């Protein structure tokens, strides 16, 4: 059970208050219509899935309901940082 | 004069008057007597019960070996019938009067006995793989027999009637283990000012101090322990948990602790004599059979964890080491010292170390005979000298080679270690000690791999995870003084890291009179020249793994310790090999010709000792297993014959059985005819509702819906379709433009939360520049859908301020007014095809308006209907239900909804790009069609596959499947919706639906719309001439609540503060409050305003006026929430069972608020004063939260009146 600091509430809270929304920092392409099917599929389906540091998007879903960036180690589960989106 | 027999009352200095209270017990059907303070194990020993079970594989009689969690043999089940608990070590079961216990393994089953007799010598490691797997068809037979023989106990024959509680705990320093090191660590951490929790699995603190004769600071170990426990108990920031096992150390110092017999002990028996905080007491009205929770699961989050788990004595392996009467040396000492029980008459101590001599000295003190066999060539330490001085026969340089006896030790064969003549010594008790294995389990659970230390001759914990410390015997320290020094030092260090420096002086460990020890010598196994049936050497007694098995595994090529473990089953029992594993590793290492460190140990996973499912489930069983969400009209439905359907967590009426014996088909027929021919009413409150506000609301909606909302006129409604980015249908619903910058979006019932989360994800992460705010108002609005040709007449009689005429109130119009005197929003939308008005009122008025509508419709025989009728009516119209007719792979075109897709939108809505992918353009995609069974009374089962021939030859090609299927009263026949490959081109074709029973239902493919009511053709009768009398609105009984959003500009804040008379709190997780108004911080741009009822509309109007044009939103959520007050000495503890947040006054003083989970729902919790909390929960969950908290109060002896519902 992870302990996660919500950068909005500025408190450490138990994992059960949060949901993980997958890899962080993925931007929707500006003009989807100009992408090839392959490029679009890459955006839709492919993620980095690293062993080690991973940038993730989490939501404090049972708390302030705000999303934020998390850098978490997928091996040790150490959370290196949490930050408001745009601040990190 | 010495005691005779097993009890040592005289030795313990107890006269018959002082002896503890006798307790009766039954073991394997035999009536016995124990006494208060006994464990089941000590009581069995006191009664002379030598054989407590039979071994798993060989059926050999087995006796008690250990004293605690390590016990491999005395595995019992306790209690009868539904209360039976399997797989408990008798050493950890506290005796209760009248206890009934049986051995888990009472002897091998007949099949195994025969087998063991015939093939006894042929049951080597991996025997079950080798023997029973061929021929494979017989495996089922053998598996059953093996399970019987394995002695896993009997399954309880009923639901467990006991209560299991849960509590979230928080501390700065958690100390696991209440022995000398743990007590020292807790003392120094608490003296530094830290909040400390000390956990010990035994009934009393002290650990080894309780059976040792060492004096500490001039006091006995027992007295020192009592002083330490009293100091800790007197500190309000220290929590002592005994009878509590820390079984799992998880990520980020989350610790699982299970407390046994949590509710059964009077305060006098808790450590320090103080009633433990949160300890349940019988209710004041004295329910005599009230027993409180049987166990309590503590989920503890600790800043720092000190593992002072101690060490478990390691046996020496020799032939016949499993004969009852062979025990651990420390266990013998503990039974004597703690229970005044002697497990025998003549003791033979077999050891390789000095401290084990304490057992011989203690035995000598009770006046019984003892011989020491010491494997070391010289036994010259101070303890051996003392033993010799006491006249004890010490045989140095010798080993016990074999044990004589079968059901009890009768003697041993002792030989010089280098070989030589074997001498038989008579004895009835053998105590062995081969050193100590640190309890590294919890440490290893964090991933820290234990490392072999040659100097300590033990696996020591690996480098600890962050925030974890080791203290005492776990570090390989053998002496009590060293353990205490380590404990004091580590406790202070942990407190410092948690932010508590204390005075800076580390408490000094008190001096002891402990004798020094000469070094031990490694000895794991005494080889036997003629290993055989009688001279088996057991490594793991619970699973009957012998030295020969481990050596065989090595010979057969199992070089990895993990593989050898799995092949031999070493350490797989309920004891997880706490005694045997290290010996097994040493024997494997020897067989492989390598070092122990090189061989390594297997990893440890939670739990440290078995945890019952009851403790894990806690109180989340029965009525609390899954919360039921209720609409405001829930009680009415129940009282009027509703038969429920689960939709998400909601209970919705599926149909109403109004007449005795009415089944679903008749009820649905009746309800459908009422809706099509008269008037009927549906509780539609469960639909998801999201208030979308802000200058960019229209832009936002255009991006998330396939169709456009920017040009939707204010006061109009539109059906919208929402796609995932892969182009598949996610959700649908009607969205209303309430005002220029405000929409109300409806979602499907089951998808409400997923849709809001999805929209927030896009709003916050992709489009933060959009000035739009989303607020869930699902719980705020109670919705009654009044459906049918007479609906206008019914509504008109209690709604006088909205012109309901077809010209003034068109299809897809929205109007605000009053219904039954209550402010209402009315939509003319229809999911049935009939004339229909959806009446929305704030939920606290929902029931009243529903009843008023029922009363107004009485003359028209208004008929309440449920979800089944709703499904039939919409299917007749060909309206889809997302999640029933779609399955996550359907595009709009598949469902015939391509006309709702405006791909020309400038931005490109979510999912747009994917619609042009080749996969989505295939002509043979599944498409929505209707089906008419050729036999109009045959109903196709939903889900049935469709084929082109009645009896196709396998493998048949599937052409689609049925998604919705009903018998229609309106059509007078059965009909169905189906997804059929290229279906729209196949109208007129006959497809076949083969059923499980072999029958086949042929059906014709038809368009998906079956019924076209003339919507505006209504009954010519004018609305009832006399409007019904409308009762005035009852006096407000609730607090009004407004959700306020704003970007935090000075202008916005000033305006809000002026109107509310109170500044918006800036600091996260705080509340501002004056005599009338409370404002809770919910997020950096979101506040919840709680104000006296009646003001909300005016406050909302003024806020809206003052902030208009800027990026803000204000939403009335009065109906959406219920306010609870929880007050009194038990308030915090009741909440601690429900929420993972730390509500301790240090972290949560008055003025703080949190949004968090509350059991299985969520809440805003605010501290209003010491021990007083406001709890704001969603209305549909209010009854669940109330019941849960009342149950929590009952379980900790609190008064349920501490909880009040204020709205």
3D architecture notes:
The complex is a heterodimer of chains A (88) and B (1207). In chain A, 10% of the residues lie in helices and 38% in strands. Chain A is mainly beta. In chain A, a hairpin with a 7-residue loop joins β4 (53-59) and β5 (67-73). Chain B is an alpha+beta fold and 1207 residues long. Helices cover 22% and strands 27% of the residues of chain B. In chain B, the strands form 15 sheets. In chain B, strands 8, 9, 12, 13, 14, 15 and 28 form a seven-stranded mixed β-sheet that branches. The chains are: A mainly beta (88), B alpha+beta (1207). Chain A binds chain B through residues 1-3, 8-11, 13-14, 16-17, 19, 21, 27-28, 31-33, 35, 37, 40-41, 44, 57, 59, 61-67, 76-79, 85-86, and chain B through 250-254, 299, 301, 447, 466, 725-726, 757, 760-761, 764-766, 768, 908, 912-914, 917-918, 1068-1069, 1082-1084, 1086, 1140-1141, 1154-1157, 1162.
